[in-house]
Write a structure and sequence with these properties.
Layout lengths: L2 H4 L1 E2 L2 E2 L1 H4 L11 E6 L4 E5 L4 E4 L6 E2 L10 E6 L2 E6 L6 E3 L2 E3 L1 E4 L4 E4 L2 E7 H6 L15 H13 L6 E4 L6 H11 L7 E5 L8 H6 L16 H4 L4 E5 L9 H8 L19 E6 L3 H7 L4 H7 L2 E4 L10 H11 L1 H4 L3 E2 L1 H9 L5 H15 L5 E2 L1 H8 L8 E2 L1 H10 L4 H8 L3 H8 L4 E2 L5
Parallel strand pairs: 5-6, 14-17, 14-18, 15-16, 16-17, 19-20
Antiparallel strand pairs: 1-2, 3-4, 3-13, 5-7, 7-8, 8-11, 9-10, 9-12, 12-13, 21-22
Length: about 425
């Protein structure tokens, strides 16, 4: 008998499983957060339930890859027990197909193209008042509904907002939602990646310049603040803003005049809401002396934390669906098999949504001529470039660097390579997966 089978006895977890239960998990009810093709909903498990796509199922999911009677769900004080009922496409957890599963708080499971996240009923009840998720961002998990509520509330204010989150989580999408949900939605939305600008041009790009203000200034430029008049200016990677430009940004945020580079006399007042974003804590820059403390406090009036994808595994599938739809013109119409979905859901996504997009693009390329992306193809697309036996080149290294927002250390870790080796690749070298330097 397998180890997994030994943990269950007649549809209930055995005492071997119960020994690990802590007092805090006792006397709880449980809720399933289900994301199928059409919606997100929360269903209490207060009795044995048969899930499936057929009319005979007690809990019907909108998913043509789910069997009529797909699995049975039972609730116990210690967790939720699920048993596959001989379905065609199976029950998956942790990337593996199983005949039965024991799920506790945060466990993510997959049936067909539907994801299920288990949570305590108490927490679900406390957060029941949360509104709908943002239309512009895929995924209806509790975390995304919390984010949506915060965005809708802050969108009605004029104060600056700082959006914090790891590389690739979708900070610009949050900024666009803040703009769209507020009173400035009719005005322009101007996005600028501060880290991508040459240091000597940051002030000119932000505030504009006069003709002849510096070499190459052959004509007058309005600048981002002027272009965003009446709307929102999004400053990504704000921690990289030059120390010379920081006091001028602070002056603009305090409601004073903005002056073009090379201009004489007084400047002009602007009507712009500034939304900034950072993938590293701004306080670290302040502590190192590279970011002004007064500007930091001006920007952090309101802070929105965007959760990483690994903390909302139930959103992986709806995000993947939206990405495939957006990429359809480039890669054709593609769908994910249930086993491929299980692979995606089980991954921890250090590069977040940007990494997920890259994996889907690579999987589509690997499966040319086939509509379905299967688990084997997805696994190959997810494989780290530094894995043994793989050959790496500069182009692939640059792709990993882009996936991790230009952070060499993060890209090297994700690729499974030493930083120095990864830098060698970026300079045009070629190595194989055995190079551990």
């Amino acid at each position: 008998m397998s180890q997994q089978s030994e943990l269950f006895s007649h549809g209930r977890p055995s005492s071997a499983t119960l020994k690990i239960v802590t007092p805090t998990t006792q006397r709880r009810g449980w809720v399933l957060e289900i994301q199928d093709r059409s919606r997100v909903r929360r269903v209490p498990v207060d009795r044995p339930i048969v899930m499936g796509s057929g009319r005979g199922a007690e809990l019907i999911v909108d998913d043509d890859t789910v069997s009529s009677a797909h699995c049975e769900v039972r609730s116990f004080p210690e967790g939720v027990y699920l048993r596959d009922l001989g379905s065609t496409n199976g029950l998956f957890t942790g990337g593996a197909r199983v005949s039965e599963a024991w799920a506790m708080d945060g466990t993510t499971l997959t049936i067909g193209q539907t994801t299920i996240v288990v949570m305590p009923a108490r927490r679900a009840e406390e957060e029941e008042e949360l509104g709908a998720p943002l239309v512009s961002m895929a995924g209806g998990s509790m975390a995304m509904r919390k984010l949506a509520s915060t965005v809708r509330r802050l969108a009605q204010l004029a104060a600056p907002v700082l959006i914090a989150g790891e590389t690739g989580v979708g900070k610009e999408l949050v900024a666009r939602a803040l703009h769209a949900e507020g009173g400035r939605s009719a005005g322009p939305f101007v996005a600028m990646n501060v880290a991508a600008l040459p240091r000597e041009l940051v002030e000119s790009e932000l505030f504009g310049h006069e003709r002849g203000a510096f070499t190459g200034a052959v004509q007058r430029r309005a600048g981002a603040f002027a272009e965003a008049e009446g709307g929102t200016l999004f400053l990504d990677e704000i921690g990289e803003l030059s120390t010379d430009a920081q006091p001028k940004l602070l002056r603009a945020l305090d409601g004073y005049e903005v002056r073009r580079v090379g201009a004489v006399g007084s400047g002009r007042r602007t009507d712009v809401r500034v939304v900034a974003a950072t993938h590293v804590p701004l306080r670290d820059h302040v502590d190192r002396g590279t970011f002004r403390r007064d500007l930091f406090h001006r920007l952090e009036v309101f802070v929105i934390e965007v959760p990483p994808l690994r903390d909302r595994a139930g959103d992986v599938l709806p995000i993947a669906r939206r990405l495939l739809s957006q990429l359809e013109e480039e890669i054709g119409k593609r769908r994910l098999t249930p086993s491929a979905i299980a692979q995606l859901t089980a991954h921890d996504w250090p590069g977040n949504v940007r990494e997920l997009k890259n994996v889907l693009l690579r999987a589509a390329e690997l499966s040319r001529g086939r509509r379905w992306l299967d688990a084997h193809t997805v696994e190959r697309a997810m494989r780290k470039p530094g894995a043994r036996g793989l050959t790496l080149n500069a182009e692939q290294a640059k792709e990993w660097l882009m996936t991790h927002g230009g952070n060499v250390s993060a890209a090297a870790r994700a690729a499974g390579l030493p930083r120095t080796t990864f830098r060698k690749l970026l300079r045009g070298g070629v190595i194989d997966g055995d190079d551990d330097e």
